[in-house]
Specification:
Elements (H helix, E strand, L loop, with lengths): L1 H6 L2 E4 L27 H10 L2 E4 L12 H8 L6 E5 L9 H9 L6 E4 L8 H4 L5 H10 L1
Helix pairs in contact: 2-3
Amino acid sequence: MLSTILDRKSINLDITHRCTLECPKCLRRSVPTNNLSDLSLDSFKKIISHFDQIEFCGQISDPIYHPQFLTFLEMMDGLGKGLRVATNGTNTKGMDEKWWEKAYSYGLGENCWYFGVDGLDKKSELYRIGSNFEQVWETMKMG
């Protein structure tokens, strides 16, 4: 079993430069991101043809804010490749309950979602400036 896990080719991608939060220690606060671009659909097609497992865990972004994030989820749906998504889950820019239902509908039994919160109360908002813990908590429970 261990050799099977080790034989899998995996990659962690920072697919965008976008995030709505203003976390004080975030790399985006000290490194300009205005010259960065989003991962293209064509590049993502090449990546999913080569890798067995893909993780969207941004170091300077939150992957859900990529303009084609739902398309990426749809492209991975049913491939059994184990997509992992790390997000704060703060709902902005049209990310209402229907948006989250659609996002969660892709990759059932395959995808894993990780939510970056700092505690189980509003104290999370002290560092993750611009987040809404109660909203994120409801989003997490929905998933």
